[in-house]
Amino acid sequence: MSTVSKIMSKQPKTVGPSVSIVSAAKKMKAARVGSLFVKKGMNLVGIVTDTDIVRRAVASSKPLGKMTVDKIMTSPICTIEGSQSVDDAQDMMGDLGVRHLAVTKAGDIIGVVSVRDVMMFYKRYAQSKIAPLVGYSEPKISQD
């Protein structure tokens, strides 16, 4: 089984805690990511996800331009060691009810793995196991 470090995103994006939610959402959109680590000084203090923005900010009906990331971020950050299996990551995400995990190596965060990364891994894994057995061929079409 493959390890989490092989499927993670290696350069996770960060944002400061006093950044507005609107700015954070724009950064996520531009980077095409679903999460940003919240960095205060040299320390990562939380994670904000697209789900956090929807559930904790948009659904609250408060003015988004004035709300900051530190008000809706998840802290502490849920982590998984990079040497653990993709199965472990899937289990941990399910157990914790999260869609993103920080990936660590000797306690330092080195990346992020998302539920999408896990799904894509299993899709490629399934295709690699099924394709040789089935042998893809075009169906024969006949006319009546």
- What's the overall average pLDDT, rounded? 89
- Supply the CATH class: Alpha Beta
Overall CATH architecture: Roll
* SSE ordering: HEHEEHEHEEH
Principal-axis shape: globular
Helical stretch count?
Answer: 5
Number of strands: 6
Number of domains: 1
Task: Give the fraction of residues assigned to helices.
Answer: 25-40%
User: Looking across the biggest beta sheet, what order are the strands in?
Assistant: 1-2-3
**Broad structural category:** alpha/beta
Classify the fold: give the CATH topology.
CBS-domain
Reported for the largest beta sheet, the result is:
3 strands, mixed
Strand percentage: 15-25%
- Whole-angstrom Rg: 19 Å
Report on this model:
- The strands form two sheets. Strands 1-2-3 form a three-stranded mixed sheet. It has a three-stranded mixed sheet with strand order 4-5-6.
- The longest helix is centred in the C-terminal third of the chain and has 20 residues.
- It contains five helices and six strands, in the order αβαββαβαββα.
- The mean pLDDT is 89.
- The chain has one domain: CBS-domain, CATH 3.10.580.10.
- The chain is of the alpha/beta class and 144 residues long.
- The protein is globular.
- The relative contact order is 0.19.
- Helices cover 38% and strands 22% of the residues.
Write the layout of secondary structure elements.
Blueprint: H1 4-7, E1 14-15, H2 21-31, E2 35-40, E3 43-49, H3 50-57, E4 79-81, H4 86-96, E5 100-105, E6 108-114, H5 115-134
Parallel strand pairs: 1-2, 4-5
Antiparallel strand pairs: 2-3, 5-6
